[in-house]
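Protein Record: Sequence and Backbone Structure Tokens
======================================================
Tokens: labelled as protein backbone structure tokens, with as many entries as the chain has residues.
Question of interest: how does this chain fold, as expressed in backbone structure tokens?

___
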Amino acid sequence: MWFTSKNMTRKLWLICKVFIICASGLTGFTLPALAQTPPNCDLQEEIFTFDLSTYATALQGGAILNIKVAYRLTNEAVAKQAYPDFVPIRKDIDNFLVNYPAKKDYWEIVNRKLVQFILDKYPQMSSLRIEMDVMPTPKWPFRRSSIVQTTRPQSCQISSY
């Protein structure tokens, strides 16, 4: 029978499921996963920065870069005092830029790929920001910059520095 209490409950449940599926598929509406919880971004924020000043590169036909790197560690890395040494990170940046295959890529692309490379290599970083300041050249007599900041999912971002 259509109007029995048990059937009504099942049909109402089915209608709700169909509505949720349709709403999520057609409008981009999604329900948050129960396992997802926002990260606990402590009020104390530890950010480490370093610069690579007047860095010469063959990219884009030759340029001088001022590169500023800032990163925040995961809460777990801070608790375990698993701080990465910046010297290997600096060497990784140098190797990345020296061996970068597409010499004519825009600075924004180079920087985005560099940020991803460093984040992949250093899992104790929760957020990374790299600023590439490109000095004027005879061909391009003006200063320009690329700033890329990425934060891992469910991690704390760099709020300021």
Summary: The CA atoms of residues 116 and 150 lie 8 Å apart. The helical segments are 5-27, 75-79, 86-98, 107-121. The longest strand covers residues 47-57.
